[in-house]
Design the sequence.
């Protein structure tokens, strides 16, 4: 069975969002330690993808 994390990585790969795929573990750690909100992390990830 595939974990949710692996499923997200697979989905990002299928969508061609390789930058997001590379940075996701870092943002998950920051969200879990409450350094960033989910929305802040998602915004930053999507901005990185655009550059």
Sequence:
């Amino acid at each position: 069975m595939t974990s949710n994390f692996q499923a997200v990585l697979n989905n990002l790969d299928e969508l061609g969002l390789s930058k997001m795929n590379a940075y996701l573990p870092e943002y998950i750690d920051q969200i879990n330690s409450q350094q960033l909100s989910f929305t802040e992390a998602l915004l930053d990830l999507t901005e990185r993808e655009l550059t």
